[in-house]
Amino acid sequence: MAKQPEYHLQLDGLLAETLPNGLRVRVLPERSAPTVAYYTFFQVGSRNERPGLTGISHLFEHMMFNGAAKYGPKEFDRVLESKGGHSNAYTSSDVTAYYEEFAAEALPTVIDLEADRMRSLALAPDVLEQERQVVMEERRLRTENSIFGLMEEQAESLVFQAHPYRWPIIGWMDDIARIRREDCLDWFRVHYAPGNAAVYLVGDVDGPEALAAIRAAYADIPAGPPPPPVAAGEPPQRGERRAVVQYPAQGGALLLAWRAPAATSPDAAVLDVVQAAISMGESSRLRRRLVQETEVAVSVHVSYGWRIDPGVFFAFVELSPGASPEEAEKLVLAELGRVARRGLAPEDLARAKRLLRSASLHELATHSGVAHALGQAEALLGDHRKAGSALLQYAAVTSADARRVAAEWLDPARRSAVVLDPRPARAGAAR
Amino acid sequence: MRPLPFPLLAEERLDNSAALVVARRPGIPLVAVRLVLSVGAALDPAGGHGTAHLTAISCRRGTRRLGGLALDRAVESLGSELGSGSDEDASFFGLSAPSEHLPRLLQLVTQVVTEPAFPAGEVERLRRRELAGLRHLLDEPGAVADRALLRTVHGDHPYGHPADGTAAHLRRLSRASVAAYHRRWYGPGVATLVVVGDVPEAATLARGRRLLSRWRSAADTPPLLTPPRRAPRRVVVVDRPDLTQTQVRIGVAALPRRTPDYFAATVANAAFGGGFTSRLVQAIRVDRGLSYGVRSRFSMSRAGGMFYVSSFTRNDAAAELLEVAFAEARRFADEGPTPEELDRARAWLAGTHPLSLETHEQVAERIADLRLYGLEVAEVTGYADRVQAVTAEDCRRVARAHFPGDDGAVVAVGPARLLQKSLARFGPVEVLSPGRAV
After folding, report:
1. Do both A274 and A139 map to the same domain?
2. Which of A279, B13, B55, B383 is the least crowded, having the fewest Cβ atoms under 10 Å away?
3. Cβ separation of A283 and B289 shorter than 8 Å?
4. Model's pTM, two decimal places?
5. CB contact under 8 A, B27 and A104
6. Which string of DSSP letters, residue by residue, matches B99-118?
7. Do A86 and B128 touch (CB under 8 A)?
8. What angle do CA B218, B34, A369 make, to 5 degrees?
C-alpha cells in the first residue's frame, strides 16, 4: 500500500447487504494477515433495560456462550478453540457485541456457531443459576471492591435522573439476583432477532464467498418484532450535584462528570479534541498543572465515550497524600474554564489533532479494530461507512469550536462531583 | 494454514556493540521504535528497589539538549507519546507515530537514553509521584496480591521485588541513585534499537548507526543471576477486612524464558489454565460458578520464572477455590491432557498466534524479546509447527516438574478473620497488613 499522508479507512472492497429477515451483513476482505475478525452487534444494552431488571443485557451476554440447539452447553468455545480461534463479548449501555478472532480456515465453523445461537439459544435453567453467580463475582470485582467502580456508579446516577444511563451496565446486585429465565427468553425474542443485529467480517477471506456463506447460514432465522422504544428523556440539570463515597483507602480521589453530546452531534468530535488537548500526553495542561506543577494529583484521566444518547464527560483525579479534593476540583474547573473562555492555543490544538490521528490509526491497525469500528459507526452513527470518519472531523476543529463546545457542555454549574472520603480499615486489621 | 507473514530482519551490530534491527512492514503508515537495554530491576541495589524503574522514567525528564517540557512537546507534537519503564530483566523506551516522523523519533529516543540530564527537581518529583502512586495501587486488591506473591515465591532473589519498587525503598532514593544506576548499567553493549514499519531498511539502519555509534560508556557487564529455587509451602494472608471478595494466588518458582521446554510449557499451560475452555476455567467458573475469572501462566524471565494461578471469589469460597486449583494441578501432573484437550490447546495457540503480531508495536516488542533472551526468529516463524509437535507426555512431564504440589506459595488478600481459619488447611497462615506485605 502506498504511503498516504491523510490516511483513512479504505472501504472500496466492502460488501454490504441486508437479508430478507433484516440481518445486516458487512464483509471487508483484507488479506495482509491470515486472520479474520467476526463481530456480531446487537442493538441492545443497559439503555434498553428498566428498573428491577437492570443488568439483564450483560447477564444475557454470558448466556449466549452457554448452549444452543446444535452446539450444546460448553461447546461454543471448545469448538472454536479447536479450530484455532477465540471469542469474547462486551455489553455497553448501547450495544452488546460478540466477536471471534481466528485463522481464516475456521470461517465456516464460526458462521455455523454464530447462526446457531442467534437461531436457537437454549437458556438452560441450571446454567443460568451458575452464570448468575459468575456475574455477581464480576460485580464484586469491578464495582464493590474497586474504588473507581464505586465512584463511577455514583457519578452516573448523579448525571442522569431519568435516562437509563443512570444505572450501571452490570446492574444492581438485587436485580442480578432477581432476573428470571422468562425475562431472558423475552430478552432474546425481542432484542436478538436478526433485524436488531449486524455482522461485520474483516480479514483474509474472499468477499463474495463469505457473504454467500453468511446468507445461507442465517437466511432461515425468522424476522422478529421491532424492539420497543427507549425512554430516553432527561430533564435539564439546574445546578451542581454532589456525592461522597466513604471507603477504606490510602489515597483520595475525585470524579467530575458532565452530561455530554450524543455521538451524532457535531460537537462530539470537538469534545474529543478538547479532551485530548487538556489531558493526553505529559505536556497537556491538566497533567502539567495537577501532576507536575502543583503536585496535587498522582494522575488525571479525562474520558468521553460516544453514545447513542447524550453520555458523560469524566475527569478522574487520584490525589497526592495531603492534597484536598477541593483544591483538585478548583484546578480542573480553572483549566476547563480557560478553554471555555479562550479556546485552545494553536500548539495545543495541533498536538491534540496529531495524538487523535495516531490513536485512530492504531485503532484501525488490526482486523478486529476495523470490524469493531464498522460496528460502532453503524450502531452509534447509523452508517458503517462512517467508520474512521472522525479523523476528518478532528482535522476541521478550530479553537473557536473548542471554546463554544466547552462553554456549552462543561459548565461548572452543571457539574456532578463524586469525592472519595478515605476511611481507615475497620478494627481487627493486622498490624 | 497460511504461513505467518513475519518480516525479514535487517540487522547490524555496531563497533561499540549496540545492536540495530529494522523490520519493514507495509500497511498502515505508522512506525514503532523500541530501544531496549537488557538491564532491569534485578540489578536494583540492596535497599534501593525501584531504582531501575525510577532511572528509566527519569531519563524522560530532560536531556543535555532539551528540558523535560520541551521533550514532552517535541514528542507529543508528532502525535506520539514516549513510554519508558523497567521490568526485572530490561529497561525499555518505546514510541510510535506516523512514519514521516521517524528521523525525529529516533533522535529523541536515543538522546533520552544516552544523555539524560536527570534534573534534580524532576527526579525528586517523580520519586514523590511514584510513592503517592503506590498508595493508590495498594488500594487495588489484585495488585496487592500480585506483589505479595512475587515476594512470597522469590523471597530475597533479585526477582523477589516489584520493578516499580516499594515505599520503604523509594523513600531513600535520590537523583544520585538514578545517575549511579545509569552510569553503571546503561551502555551500548546492552542496547538494542528496533524499528518496525513502512520504512526503508538501509536508510533506517544508517540513521540508527549515526545516532548510536558515538555512544561510549564505562558500563559494567551485567552479572548472570542464579535461578530462583522452589521453596516449601507458605500461606500468606494480606488483611483487608473490608473486602467482600478475596483475591487468591498460588505460585512456584519455574522456568526461564530460554528453555527447551518452552513449547511444552506453553501447551501444558494452555490446556490447564490458559484458554477459556481450560481445566481451571471449567472447574472453577463453569462447573462451580466460583469466579468470573481464573487463569494460570508461566511467567518467564532470563534467569528463571514462576508458574502461578490467579483468581478471586467471595470470601467464604476462597478455600474451596484453592482446593479445586491444587487438585486440578495434581490431576494434570498425574494424567496430562486428554487427546481432545491437547488437540484443542495446540489448535488454539497456533491459530491465534498471528493475532499477537498484527501491529508494528507487537512485532517490535517480539523482536526485542528475541534479542533480550537470545532466541531464534524461527521460534516465531515456526511457532505453529513447534506447538503441534508437543505431545501429551511433554505436557505431563512439564506439569510434574513445574506445577505446584505440596510446596508452593498461597497468597490471599481479604478479611483475615475469615481467611485465617479457612486457609489453615494449606499450612500455617502468616497474616500481614497491606503495608507490610508489599
Report:
1. no
2. B13
3. no
4. 0.94
5. no
6. GGGHHHHHHHHHHHHHSB--
7. no
8. 165
Interface test with B, best of A99, A282, A301, A368 (most B CBs within 10 A): A282
For B244, which of A145, A249, A298 is closest by C-beta distance? A145
> Do A291 and A333 reside in the same domain of the chain?
yes
Instruction: Please write the tens of the pLDDT for every residue from B224-280.
Output: 999 999 999 999 999 999 999 999 999 999 999 999 999 999 999 999 999 899 999
Instruction: Compare all CA atoms of chain A with the CA of B431 and give the residue at the minimum distance.
Output: A430
Q: What is the CATH number of the domain that holds A179?
A: 3.30.830.10
Q: B409-418 burial, b for 16+ CB within 10 Å, e for fewer?
A: bbbbbbbbeb
What is the domain extent for residue A268? 241-423
Q: How far is A122 from chain B (nearest CA, A)?
A: 16
Residue B4 is predicted with a pLDDT of 76
Q: Which residues contact A384 (CB under 8 A, 6 or more apart)?
A: A14, A16, A26, A198, A200, A374, A375, A377, A378
Give the mutation candidate from B4, B69, B135 for the A interface (greatest A CB count, under 10 A). Answer: B135
CB atoms within 10 A of CB A418: 26
* Pair A208, A84 in one domain: yes
- For chain B, the structural domain boundaries read 9-212, 234-437
Give, rounded to a whole angstrom, the gap between the first and last alpha carbons of chain A: 63
Q: What CA–CA distance (Å, rounded) separates B144 from A303?
A: 26
Q: What number of other Cβ atoms are within 10 A of residue A391's Cβ?
A: 19
Q: How far is A162 from chain B (nearest CA, A)?
A: 30
Same-domain pairing of A99 and A143: yes
Whether A362 is in a domain gets the answer yes
A34, A428, A429 ranked by CB distance to B2: nearest: A34
Q: Thinking of the domain B9-212, which architecture would CATH place it in?
A: 2-Layer Sandwich (3.30)
In 3D space, the residue among A415, A410, A397, A365 whose CA is nearest the CA of residue A269 turns out to be A397
Select the residue of B125, B276, B417 nearest A86 (Cβ to Cβ).
B276
Clarify whether residues A67 and A201 are in a common domain: yes
Q: Please give the class, per CATH, of domain B234-437.
A: alpha beta
Residues A363 and A407 in one domain: yes
- Quote the DSSP letter at residue B27: S
Residue B51 pairs in a beta bridge with: none
Question: For A68, which DSSP code?
Answer: B
- The whole-angstrom separation of Cα A62 and Cα A81 is 18
Q: Domain count of chain A? A: 2
Which residue among A131, A141, A250 places its CB closest to the CB of B139?
Answer: A250
Q: Which residue in the set A81, A362, A366 is minimally distant from B348, CB to CB?
A: A81
Instruction: Examine residue A331 and state whether it is found in any structural domain, yes or no.
Output: yes
Chain B, nearest residue to A136 by Cα: B292
What integer is the mean pLDDT of B337-343? 98
The alpha carbon of residue B225 is apart from the nearest alpha carbon of chain A, in Å, by 35
- Name the DSSP letter for residue A161: S
Domain boundary among A156, A187, A218: A218
pLDDT of residue B28: 79
Same-domain status, A65 and A153: yes
Banded pLDDT at A1 (limits 50, 70, 90): very low
